[in-house]
Amino acid sequence: MSAPANENRRLLTRLGVAAVAMFGFGFAMVPFYNAICRVTGLRNILQPDAVENTQVDRSRSVVVEFDANLHAMAWHFRPVQRAVEIHPGELVQVAYEVTNTRDEPVTGQAVPSYGPQLAGKHFRKVDCFCFEQQTLAPRETRTMPVVFVIDPGLPQDVRTITLSYTFFEVEGTRAPALREGRT
To answer: What is the Cα–Cα distance from 153 to 118, expressed in whole angstroms?
Structure first.
């Protein structure tokens, strides 16, 4: 067998091993991600949270501030209210408003974050626009609700929580509309 044929065979073997290793790594990421989420308290942002304690703690109140951010998107995004004062255990509904400033449909996904970080373990979203991707028509404005409960187990020293959403454009969602000739 010639030297180039041997080199090609070795290269093919190496590429095959690399492909199998990458495939295995992809499968290993799922349990690894789940373990990290358990350790850090992160939850699936695409599903409602379980509300375990429905007792309202009227002995204290917490101020929840709302923040809105965009990551490289030509949208306007803001909370309708800047803050609310609530009792832990109380069911609350607030709203965010978003406008697509483009002349074409755009799809985005909102990702929540909390401040202080430990508040995320006690913040239970029952209904949220962040559970699904949002597709806005050209120049469309939409008001989107967030329904939540602050778990009464929130530490007593936490008196203010910031709920922040960042919208990211979902890649690859504009191409079909452009291929069909819509703008």
So the answer is: 11
Rounded CA separation 73/71 (Å): 6
Report if pTM > 0.90. no
Question: What would the pLDDT profile of 64-79 be if each residue is shown by its tens digit?
Answer: 999 999 998 889 999 9
Answer for the pair 65, 158: CB distance below 8 angstroms, yes or no: no
CA within 13 Å, CB half, 70: 17
What DSSP designation does 183 have? -
For the record, the structure tokens of 51 come out as 């509300």
Per-residue pLDDT reduced to its tens digit, 6-16 = 888 888 899 88
| Torsion angle in degrees (nearest 10) through CA of 95, 167, 68, 126 | 40
